[in-house]
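Q: How do we represent a protein-ligand complex in a form that can be generated token by token?
A: Start from the inputs.
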Amino acid sequence: MTDQPISPLLTEAKLGRYTLPHRFVMAPLTRLRATNPEDAVGALHATYYAQRATAALIISEATHISPQGKGYPGAPGIYSEAQIAGWKQVTDAVHAAGSLIFAQLWHVGRIAHSSVQPGGALPVAPSAIRPEGQARTYDGKRDFETPRALETEELPGIVEQYRHAARSALKAGFDGVEIHAANGYLLDQFLKDGTNKRTDAYGGSVENRARLTLEVVDAVIAVWGADRVGIRLSPSGKMHMAVDGDPERNFIYVARELGKRGLAYLHVVEPSNPYGDPFDRDVDPQVIRRAFGGTYIANGGYGLDKARAEATITSGEAEFIAFGRPYIANPDLPRRLTEGLPLAETDQDTVYSDGPEGYSDYPIYEESRLAETG
Ligand SMILES: Cc1cc2nc3c(=O)[nH]c(=O)nc-3n(C[C@H](O)[C@H](O)[C@H](O)COP(=O)(O)O)c2cc1C
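Then emit the structure tokens for the protein with flavin mononucleotide bound:
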């Protein structure tokens, strides 16, 4: 018998107030299956997430914090009683399956269309700059509109939306929350100077552009305690045309400020991420990790390369790895990756469709092998 060395991905580590048994985190994945007038999840989502409780920590799909924060038909919310009740089914199922789940808190800002906004209002943003491309609506894709720039007096109301959603997540039985400040949505729009042309205290200098995000972080910490709050950033990301002229300087400041607050973790969508719009390698994520100084979750393409994922843990460049796309078709991803078993392919046609197909019907490895051999 030969002793296989244990994968560094299977060693325990601390994340905020929790000690997790291994290093696999499920990255947030929008799947647009909350297709009901309440924007609520339910039994189907509970099944899907419980299947993926093989992750030591699940980060939920992005959940809009208010009707104004919504940009995608079929995305779930986290502000109403019906939504809280739906998420309670999910958190109960994940806990029964032995894992933890954080809610990702989302305000899309300008990445919306007036037809999905309350009262048909224009989407809001730091500045009235129209993104190129198209929004998802109930009638298919429509060109983005020029958003309405938020008044300074409205910004406390945005912070309040996050506070309310954070409280709702607590009631729904989540184990923590992740503030979505990545991928070109509202907080990222404020952080980056390509989307933020404001002349008030929330625009201009790096400090001003970070102000709203830090106010949101402080409000959410007041609800949860810092050791149950994480944040997601995409310093190098250009998704949804949120770009910055000096992202390294900007995000070093943001990461330092976040580090002072003792958050449970910083989660970075790294430039190697081959998903979506092109990413430049203009910010070394390790610089951002060091500026933060706490627990770091690396994300972006790690499911394609087990050796890279393991080396990232062994070298101390990350405490955890978040896997996104591989989790869609591989509910048992940790086992498949660490044992060198083949990964199942995602059916692209059902990523954003409705119902169980291509969602909760991907089998674990043994089942798929049995199915093949009849
Ligand atoms: C179908 C799909 C949905 C996604 N939804 C979200 C989301 O809701 N929130 C978020 O922060 N990132 C989202 N992402 C980005 C992923 O979390 C992750 O950053 C990206 O897929 C790169 O990681 P990977 O190479 O492990 O897939 C999504 C990606 C995909 C493919």
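The radius of gyration is 20 Å. The pocket of flavin mononucleotide is lined by residues 27-30, 61-62, 104, 180, 182-183, 232, 269, 273, 275, 299-303, 323-325, 351 (CB under 6 Å).
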